[in-house]
Specification:
- By secondary structure, this protein is α+β, with helices and mostly antiparallel strands.
- It has twelve helices and 23 strands.
- 28% of the residues lie in helices and 27% in strands.
- The strands form six sheets. Strands 12, 15, 18, 19, 22 and 23 form a six-stranded antiparallel sheet that branches. Strands 3-2-1-4-5 form a five-stranded parallel sheet.
- The protein is globular, with a radius of gyration of 21 Å.
- 49% of the residues are buried.
- The structure holds adenosine monophosphate (AMP) and glycine.
- The site of glycine has 6 residues, from loops.
């Protein structure tokens, strides 16, 4: 069987976990990661290229004879990297594991995704959208809305574009700042106002070739900085898989009401979509609703999903490229997996960088996925808010967590912080 050169875009814990999984495939010849991190450097060759510098990505693809491009995050997809590749005769033969620019709008525009769900009767919170043009209607709407009120900047806002207002005044203030003061630039020129849903969230991932799809293991992430789900939203402080309630009747509803109509809806609208559809769901009294779509894997969900996926990821990507994902049957590792994210003190606000890290050689029984780290003078230093994802297997979620927490205590750097209650609902 032939083997493939792969270029993976990104530099977080998600990309370290994807690189770890790709490296295990016999089909993977050379693995490049742009820009990568010290964790990915142990699995392949890091290239010092920005994920949105399409011209330099093109040059690297030609120089290294890349067969597969895997964008880890949303930025390059929303900016149209798929279309850039398909419109270039020198790049057209490359399998791009990600949607077209139009497909990436499922994540890139909240208003687009809401209208899409409406057209396909996919359960989601009731909503209205507002711009400068109907600003006054928006204020009236907010004043009559039941509390709490969810406001979302339409475009990408690095996870900061959602406000859950507990009072009408707070809602009006947030709405005004988003639209009149362009708090998130173009991203908040349009605002989606929606009903607040109460329930437990989970992340479901479909991998699709546009026609067929397979479901990866599901996961639950812990977004808030503080224990007991308190404080500011972060990129994610930890994750578990499997999610105990994600089975039987509930998962049948997820598939019938959400996943299948989404994939069929994309196909029926001729939206080119090859890659991951990430469903951010909420379980409202046994019924699933979509909170958001993303067009890529989750971080830190990937750090538990990849360890529990027994299939060869590179083979899956090739089958996707051939439109033959129906030939893949997903196999789950029966064990549970968890990941605990070590972060820098101050995150998700401002935080220091450059703190020397230690303890790597003493940490056993977990997989250490680098997130925000760098190498300097032969040492590993902190280089981001989320620093290291400590993933472990266990017969139960609690067993897996015990291993991760053991190693979380062993890794050292100044200002280390982590949540000690990942998986708390399932004790
Ligand atoms: P999003 O960026 O759309 O995922 O929103 C960020 C977070 O805000 C979600 O993970 C939820 O915890 C929360 N959220 C968003 N929309 C709603 C909603 N309609 N009801 C309740 N919580 C929500
Ligand atoms: N962990 C949530 C996300 O990746 O968007």
């Amino acid at each position: 069987m032939s083997s493939y050169n792969i270029l993976l875009l990104g530099s977080g814990g998600r990309e370290n976990a994807l690189a770890w999984k790709m490296r295990q495939s016999k089909l993977c010849k050379e693995l490049f990661i742009a820009p990568g991190n010290p964790g990915t450097a142990q699995l392949g060759s890091n290239l010092n290229i920005s994920i949105t510098d399409f011209e330099r990505i093109k040059d690297a693809c030609i120089e290294y004879k890349i067969d597969i491009l895997f964008p880890g995050g949303e930025d390059s997809l929303v900016a149209g990297i798929y279309d850039f590749f398909m419109n270039d005769p020198q790049l057209q033969h490359i399998i791009v594991a990600g949607p077209s620019k139009e497909g990436a709008q499922l994540e890139g525009s909240k208003a687009f995704s809401k209208k899409f769900m409406e057209r396909h009767n996919i359960p989601t919170a009731a909503y209205r959208e507002f711009t400068e043009d109907n600003f006054e209607d928006g204020i009236t709407y907010l004043q009559q809305h039941s509390l709490p009120i969810v406001l979302k900047a339409d475009g990408l806002a690095a996870g900061k574009g959602v406000v859950i207002a507990q009072s009408h005044q707070e809602a009006v203030d947030a709405f005004t700042t988003m639209i009149k003061e362009a708090q998130f630039g173009d991203a908040s020129k349009k605002v989606v106002v929606e009903q607040f849903l109460t329930g437990v969230e989970l992340s479901v991932f479909a991998f699709t070739d546009g026609k067929n799809y397979v479901l990866l293991p599901e996961a639950k992430d812990y977004k808030r900085i503080g224990e007991g789900d308190t404080g500011l939203n972060t990129g994610g402080m930890g994750a578990i898989s499997p999610v105990p309630f994600a089975q039987g009747d509930f998962m049948n509803k997820v598939v019938e009401r959400i996943v299948t109509p989404t994939i069929n809806g994309l196909a029926s609208e001729n939206i080119i979509y090859n890659g991951i559809v990430f469903f951010g769901l909420i379980n409202v009294d046994g019924d699933p609703f979509v909170i958001e779509y993303n067009c890529r894997m989750g971080d830190p969900e990937t750090e538990v999903v990849m360890p529990r996926l027994e299939n060869d990821l590179v083979e899956m990507i090739i089958k996707m490229g051939e439109g033959k994902l129906n030939e893949i049957t997903i196999q789950h590792d029966k064990r549970a997996a968890c990941t605990v994210m070590l972060v820098s003190e101050g995150y998700p606000g401002s935080y220091p960088k450059g703190k020397v890290m230690g303890g790597f050689d003493k940490a056993h029984g977990s997989i250490l996925f680098h997130a925000g780290t760098a190498s300097k003078d032969g040492e590993i230093i902190t280089n981001g808010g989320r620093v290291l994802a400590i993933t472990s297997y266990g017969n139960t979620i609690q067993d897996a967590l015990a291993s991760s927490y053991h190693n979380a205590a062993i890794i050292e750097y100044a200002g280390k912080y982590y949540r000690r209650d990942i998986g708390y609902e399932f004790k």
